[in-house]
């Protein structure tokens, strides 16, 4: 969900900024749909979903950085080999 919302923005910084915001908003809306008599249960659910979302966003960001770093190294190696 966060990836679909974040696609208009580019860069790792925007992923780190907008990812948790999107997850917080989504978890808040999802929690409001749940009918729970205990407010503590709602807050606990909100915190857990937010933390899981934050971990997922961080893992996706690490993956993106690794892929871009690998592509950058490959591009530099190609330039050295072909003398560009």
Automatic annotation (TrEMBL):
The chain crosses the membrane at residues 12-30, 42-65. Keywords: Membrane, Transmembrane, Transmembrane helix. It comes from the Eukaryota. This is Uncharacterized protein. It comes from Trifolium subterraneum (Subterranean clover).
């Amino acid at each position: 969900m966060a990836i679909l919302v974040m696609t208009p923005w580019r860069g790792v910084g925007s992923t780190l900024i907008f990812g948790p915001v999107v997850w917080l908003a989504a978890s808040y809306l999802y929690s409001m749909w749940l009918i729970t008599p205990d407010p503590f249960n709602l807050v606990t659910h909100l915190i857990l979903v937010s933390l899981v979302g934050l971990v997922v966003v961080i893992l996706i960001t690490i993956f993106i950085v690794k892929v871009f770093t690998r592509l950058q190294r490959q591009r530099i190696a190609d330039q050295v080999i072909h003398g560009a």
